[in-house]
Amino acid sequence: MNIPEVIIENEKDGTVMVLIPAGKFLAGGNKEGEEKFPVELPSYYMAIHPVTNTQYARFLNELQPIVEDLEKWIQLDSQCFVRKNGSRYEAYGGKEEHPMVQVSWNGAKAYCEWAGLRLPSELEWEKGCRGTDGREYPWGNEWDEKKCRNDKNKGSGKTASVYYYPEGVSPYGLYQMSGNVWEW
Q: Do 35 and 29 touch, CB atoms closer than 8 A?
C-alpha cells in the first residue's frame, strides 16, 4: 500500500502519530462465518506505538494523582515497570520503552485526556491495524510468529520494546498492532 505519510508529534507526551487517510476499508470477518463489510471513515491520527512505561511515568509525575485515582488507573505491581520512588514515578528494569501494562480503561482515558489525545474507536483501530484490504494480520493473511511478540518467542520476557518487530508493522507503519500486549 503506497500511502503518503503525514507524521506529527504530540508536544505534551512525545507521541508520534501518523495520519490514517479518509476512505473505505474492509472490516470484520475475524470470526468463523463472519463476512467482511466495507466501512468509510474520515481521516484521523493514530500513535505509531503503544504508550510506553516512560510516557506513563511522565503522566503520573505531572498529575501526581491521589491514591484513589491511582488505584483506578493502574496496578503498580511486579508485572508493571513503573514504580513510585519517593514522590516521583519512574520507568525501570530496562523496560522504559516497553508498552505500559496493568492500566485500566480509566487509566488509559485519563492519560489521553492529559495528553490531549483520545483512544481510537474499534473501527479506527481495525483500519490502522489491517489496512484497507481486510487482511487478518498487520502484515498479511498468514500468521507469522516472527513478526510480533507472542507466546512462542517471548523467552523469559513478558513484553518487547515498542519498536521491535518492524517486519510486522501495519500498512500505515504502526508497531505492535498484533502481539506484545492487549490494548485499549
A: yes
Predicted confidence (pLDDT) per residue in 26-80, tens digit: 999 877 778 999 999 999 999 999 999 999 999 999 999 999 999 999 999 988 9
144 three-class SS: coil
Q: Which residue has the cell 498529575?
A: 63
Q: What are phi and psi of 12, to 5 degrees?
A: -65, -45
Distance of alpha carbon 44 from alpha carbon 126, whole angstroms = 13
Query: From CA 93, how far away is CA 70, in angstroms rounded?
Result: 21
Among 61, 99, 63, smallest CA distance to 80 is for 99
**Cα–Cα dist 105/73, whole Å:** 7
Helices (H) and strands (E) in the chain, counts: 4, 7
Phi, psi of 99 (to 5 degrees): -70, 145
> What Cα–Cα distance (Å) separates residue 170 from each residue in 58, 98, 152, 178?
27, 18, 21, 9
Ramachandran angles phi, psi of 57, nearest 5°: -65, -40
DSSP code, position 168: G
**Digit-coded pLDDT (tens) for 78-108:** 889 999 999 999 999 999 999 999 999 999 9
Asked if 171 and 123 count as a contact pair (C-beta separation under 8 A), the reply is no
Residue 24: phi, psi to the nearest 5?
-85, 155
- Are the CB atoms for 137 and 57 separated by under 8 Å? no
